Amino acid sequence: MDTTKSNIEMLSEDQNGEVDYEAWRFKIILIIKSKKCFDCVIGAEPKPSGDPNQKEVKEWLDKDVEAQTIISLNVSKKIAKHIMCCKTLQQMFEKLEYLYGKKSDYEIEGLQRKFFGFLFDSTKSAVENCNEIQQLAQDLSAQDGNDYEQWAMTRMLTILPQRLYHFRTSWDNVTGNQRTISNLIEKLRLEED
């Protein structure tokens, strides 16, 4: 069993009690998938019934323990205390999701307020401002699963300072599958240069 501590940031609370669970979850799931243990997380591969010494039961238990070990080695002591009583990988993930994954309506509303209330920061480049909008859109998407790419592009165009208003007109000429955030930011980068 090759279960060493991974080279990812440990899931822990910062001085304000905040946790970057979404980024940690993404990375830990990739590690667990690479170990072929992910089906235990989502319950797609339920524990086979029978004697723990039977081959398929033992293999399932080994995968589950390996993935539990990966998670346990990549969380802080404080967070580990929350999952110590979990008997399976699926229980660990459900507990972590409950504690850190689901944002309250209040928190989602706060993200939406930041997204729609975002104002251009003149101390930063237009590209840096657009990257902040893109991050807010990704944070919203991580919370509710909706795609905010079109909203983000619209928001990016509406916050541009007067010196870049002409960029909107040139962007209107972009059509079809060329209308992506990465293309908008790249064209804006060229415009600023």
- Runs with pLDDT <50, length 5+? none
Give the integer mean of the pLDDT values: 85
Radius of gyration: 22 Å
What is the first-to-last residue Cα distance? Answer: 52 Å
Helix content: 55-70%
Task: Count up the helices.
Answer: 10
The total domain count is 2
SS elements, strand count: 0
The secondary-structure class comes to: mainly alpha
Query: How large is the share of residues in beta strands?
Result: under 5%
**H/E element order:** HHHHHHHHHH
Biggest beta sheet attributes: none
Protein name: Copia protein
Organism: Zophobas morio
What secondary-structure arrangement, pairings included, does this model have?
Elements: H1 21-34, H2 38-42, H3 55-72, H4 77-83, H5 89-101, H6 105-116, H7 126-144, H8 149-159, H9 165-172, H10 181-192
Helix pairs in contact: 6-7, 7-8, 7-10
What do these coordinates show?
This is Copia protein. It comes from Zophobas morio. This protein is mainly alpha-helical and 193 residues long. The chain has two domains: 21-101, no CATH class; 105-192. The protein contains ten helices and no strands. The protein has helices at residues 21-34, 38-42, 55-72, 77-83, 89-101, 105-116, 126-144, 149-159, 165-172, 181-192. Helix 6 runs antiparallel to helix 7 (126-144) and helix 7 packs antiparallel against helix 8. It is elongated and about 70 Å long.
Structure at a glance:
With 193 residues, the chain is mainly α. It has helices at residues 21-34, 38-42, 55-72, 77-83, 89-101, 105-116, 126-144, 149-159, 165-172, 181-192.
